[in-house]
Design a protein that fits this description.
It contains eight helices and two strands; from the N terminus they run βαααααααβα. The protein is mainly alpha-helical. It has a single domain, classed as Up-down Bundle (Fumarate Reductase Cytochrome B subunit).
């Protein structure tokens, strides 16, 4: 086994900033629904809006970075060995069976991760942003004469927030399934990970 640079600095920065923003948006968003009170409604609204705009801006930069570095190829979906990966997570992981997917810098995501991230990035996340923008600019859109239901978009926004929360919980759980419970987290902090000798030449 040899250590290689698995995650670039920009990639790690975007990952942790995105994680922090998602958690903060969930925290302030659920407060706006009256689930609890931490910041107070007005401050929670302002903080939620600020975090949302920050998320949009960083996402635009991330899209440019993925295109420029060709890292978008990491998300190309594939069904190859998908059944083996699913079986590994459902059964094999509890019997210490080896993971069927061997991660490399040029192929970091297994088939199940690719499909999951595409679902979040191409469906949930865009709908979450669009519904949030509609709610944020609702008065302006009404003044333009657009027949928009605030309640409908608020419900859509909330449903997507719950989907993001579910994804976040599963994602955090999956980070504990490495060689040690902290192996994947440390790798995303340092950028370094171990791969087999014969894969090192390719990397």
């Amino acid at each position: 086994m040899k250590q290689v640079i698995m995650y670039q600095g920009t990639e790690r920065l975007w990952h942790w900033l995105q994680a922090a923003l998602i958690i903060f948006l969930l925290l302030t968003g659920f407060e706006l629904h009256g689930t609890y009170e931490i910041f107070g409604y007005e401050d929670a609204y302002e903080l939620h809006a600020f975090a949302a705009w920050t998320m949009i801006i960083t996402t635009l930069f991330a899209i440019v970075w993925h295109i420029y570095t060709h890292e978008w190829r990491q998300y190309i979906p594939t069904l190859k060995d998908l059944d083996k990966v699913i079986r590994c997570y459902l059964i094999g992981i509890f019997y210490d069976e080896p993971h069927p997917f061997k991660k490399k810098p040029e192929a970091k995501l297994n088939p199940l991760q690719r499909l999951s991230y595409l679902y979040i990035l191409l469906i949930v996340f865009p709908v979450l942003i669009i519904s949030g923008l509609v709610c944020f600019f609702y008065n302006e859109l009404q003044a333009m004469g657009l027949p928009i239901s605030f309640e409908a978009f608020a419900i859509i926004h909330t449903i997507c927030a719950f989907l993001m929360l579910i994804f976040l919980v599963i994602h955090i759980y999956m980070t504990t399934t490495g060689k040690t419970p902290w192996a994947y987290t440390v790798s995303m902090i340092t950028g370094r990970d171990e791969i087999e000798e014969e894969d090192t030449k390719l990397a």
